UniProtKB/TrEMBL annotation:
<keyword id="KW-0342">GTP-binding</keyword>
<keyword id="KW-0479">Metal-binding</keyword>
<dbReference type="GO" id="GO:0008270">
    <property type="term" value="F:zinc ion binding"/>
</dbReference>
<keyword id="KW-0547">Nucleotide-binding</keyword>
<feature type="binding site">
    <location>
        <position position="319"/>
    </location>
    <ligand>
        <name>GTP</name>
    </ligand>
</feature>
<feature type="active site" description="Nucleophile">
    <location>
        <position position="293"/>
    </location>
</feature>
<feature type="binding site">
    <location>
        <position position="235"/>
    </location>
    <ligand>
        <name>GTP</name>
    </ligand>
</feature>
<comment type="function">
    <text>Catalyzes the conversion of GTP to 2,5-diamino-6-ribosylamino-4(3H)-pyrimidinone 5'-phosphate (DARP), formate and pyrophosphate.</text>
</comment>
<dbReference type="GO" id="GO:0005525">
    <property type="term" value="F:GTP binding"/>
</dbReference>
<feature type="binding site">
    <location>
        <position position="279"/>
    </location>
    <ligand>
        <name>GTP</name>
    </ligand>
</feature>
<feature type="binding site">
    <location>
        <position position="230"/>
    </location>
    <ligand>
        <name>Zn(2+)</name>
    </ligand>
</feature>
<feature type="domain" description="GTP cyclohydrolase II">
    <location>
        <begin position="173"/>
        <end position="332"/>
    </location>
</feature>
<dbReference type="InterPro" id="IPR036144">
    <property type="entry name" value="RibA-like_sf"/>
</dbReference>
<feature type="binding site">
    <location>
        <position position="232"/>
    </location>
    <ligand>
        <name>Zn(2+)</name>
    </ligand>
</feature>
<keyword id="KW-0686">Riboflavin biosynthesis</keyword>
<feature type="binding site">
    <location>
        <position position="314"/>
    </location>
    <ligand>
        <name>GTP</name>
    </ligand>
</feature>
<dbReference type="GO" id="GO:0009231">
    <property type="term" value="P:riboflavin biosynthetic process"/>
</dbReference>
């Protein structure tokens, strides 16, 4: 007798996680839109000439390069929505130029994206790849073998919102810190991309009262290495010290490197910043909007810790709004500043002037609080 092994996990969601892994490894994924047809999507980062030639052979109709509106604006097209640039052939050099060269201009028709194109871009973002996708339409005569992963477009569509509810606590232990001796680390797993998110409980916060909270997005360069380009490391340590002084608080250390773009894209953006672009323009050049982060899962972490009312340490009005929208009562907010350096002044000024962060810079008169 033959037994069939079948796991009870929802297959659709699992297939998105597998597709994220495929994208990260540079392999193409078959996106199944059912009656809308199927497309093969290939991230840009590993588009070798050999792969490009393979894709050219199977394309049923014109291939296209799907780019976010942010990147299209940088290519000189004023448009609100994302777009698909027609590709007469899958030419890696031309595609790379369109996707991230500084002085590139569009040289072919750009069409509105189809729903499947949007799902393909979402996959790239989930994989922390560059949001630039080569799309190959597949005719009915193409049958992909087991080497190509098939994922339902509908599963990609609802993935992030769906995953928010699945955050589970997987480990907790005391970890004494130099600035806060009585501290416990609590690890959550799940959420988008199954990343690990950590709650650092300082002292003994009382959940019956509003708890001092910081949502801190990971910044490898600033938090760990003391990079002069941002204020993250100072904000991190100041917040922990403040919580210890006040008798308790919780810092959520969120796996959201580079405002959610991932470390590779942040370092790509830093390279552009070294050429004169500010933090938002550099991200736009790579196809990212001002901020990819969502904080709804942070609200779920707080709830699991029994916290519903908070005093939030932040200068970022979006964090206040996002938590409030996710059902956490933000009783008050307090600002937190790092040192100003020659290297981070432009970063801080851009955050203040372009996105309303409540930042005071040394030598300036205090600004009115929001
Ligand atoms: N894309 C991009 N991300 C950056 C850059 N500099 C820092 N970051 C990231 O920006 C985020 C900063 O996180 P936070 O300090 O939590 O957030 P914030 O939005 O500044 O808000 P508050 O510090 O709470 O006021 C981290 O994910 C950093 O890795 C940059 O130049 N480009
Ligand atoms: Zn930083």
């Amino acid at each position: 007798m033959r037994l069939t092994l079948s796991l009870s996990e929802p297959h659709e969601r699992t297939s998105v996680e597998r597709a994220i892994a495929e994208m990260r490894m540079g392999r193409p994924v078959l996106l199944d839109g059912q009656e809308r047809g199927s497309i093969l999507v290939q991230g840009l980062e590993d588009l070798t000439p050999e792969r490009a030639a393979e894709l050219d052979v199977i394309a049923a109709g014109a291939a296209r390069l799907v780019l976010p509106a942010a990147r299209l604006r940088r290519l000189g097209l004023q448009r609100e929505g994302n777009g698909a640039v027609a590709l007469p052939s899958v030419d890696p050099a031309r595609i790379a130029t369109l996707a991230f060269e500084i002085d590139a201009r569009v040289d072919a028709p750009v069409h509105a994206t189809e729903a499947l194109d949007e799902d393909a871009l979402e996959l790239a973002r989930l994989a922390l790849s560059l949001p630039a996708i080569v799309v190959i339409p597949l005719g009915p005569s193409v049958a992909a073998d087991a080497s190509v992963l098939r994922v339902a477009a509908s599963a990609v569509h609802g993935y992030r919102a769906d995953r928010v509810r699945d955050l589970v606590m997987v480990a907790r232990s005391p970890v004494p810190l130099a600035d806060a001796h009585e501290t416990e680390f609590v690890v959550f797993r799940g959420g988008e991309g199954l990343r690990d998110q950590v709650a650092i409980i300082v002292g003994k916060p009382d959940p019956a009262e509003p708890v001092i909270i910081r949502l801190h997005s990971a910044c490898l360069t600033g938090d760990l290495f003391g990079s002069l380009k941002c204020d993250c490391g100072d904000q991190l340590r100041t917040s922990v010290r403040y919580m210890a002084e006040q008798g308790g608080g919780v810092l959520l250390y969120l796996d959201q490197e580079g405002r959610g773009n991932g470390i590779a894209n942040k370092i790509r953006a830093y390279k552009l910043q070294a050429q004169g672009y500010d933090t938002y323009d550099a991200d736009e050049m790579l196809g990212f909007g001002p901020d990819q982060r969502r904080f709804d899962f942070a609200a779920r972490m707080l709830e699991q810790l029994g916290i519903r009312r908070v005093r939030l340490i932040t200068n970022n009005p979006d964090k206040i709004e996002a938590l409030a929208k996710s059902g956490i009562q933000v009783v008050s907010h307090e600002r937190v500043f790092g040192r100003t350096t020659a290297e981070n002044t432009r970063y801080l000024t851009s955050k203040r002037d372009r996105f309303g962060h409540l930042i005071e810079l040394a030598g300036e008169r205090p600004r009115k609080d929001g």
